[in-house]
Amino acid sequence: MSDNREQLLDLSVEAEGSEERFSQVRNWFRSTGWSMADPTVYDLYYDKHPADAFGPRTLAASADANGSYSFVSGRDYYFAGEGTGGPVCRRCTVQLPLELIVPLVSEWYDGGPEPRLACPDCSWTGLFGDWDLRSCMAVASFAVIIDTGTAGYSPELTMTLLEGLRTNLGGRWVYINKYI
């Protein structure tokens, strides 16, 4: 059996600020109707982290009523699961090879700076998080994990939430789809 998690990562948060960011983001989710408090809700994969039930706005987007949002504070490594690949250039859509990326992400995870990458085809350069990471990996100190339940992958919900988070709370939000 397979499962998906939509991982929304804020790369602008340092480990020391992750609890404060958790409060800001969870309050925003609740006040805007995306989530609601429910002490019985948890995600099997993130059961040690606070979680909310889907709120009326999420349910209106035709998501499964059994889905949840988990709020994960603290530095961690996130990846796409099965089919993890390298980042994709936002200018020309060339994908960098995974074997080139793994050592860079490992160094980043061990406390190094976020890597800067250059596209071998079009020469575009950007920080790792500026590339398309949908099927890649990243290091972040705060994440929102969406368990869409039986509804499966929901690109519309994910993109709407990313836009709302960026507009209303700022930060460097990136998205990775985890296929378990």
UniProtKB/TrEMBL annotation:
<protein>
    <submittedName>
        <fullName>Uncharacterized protein</fullName>
    </submittedName>
</protein>
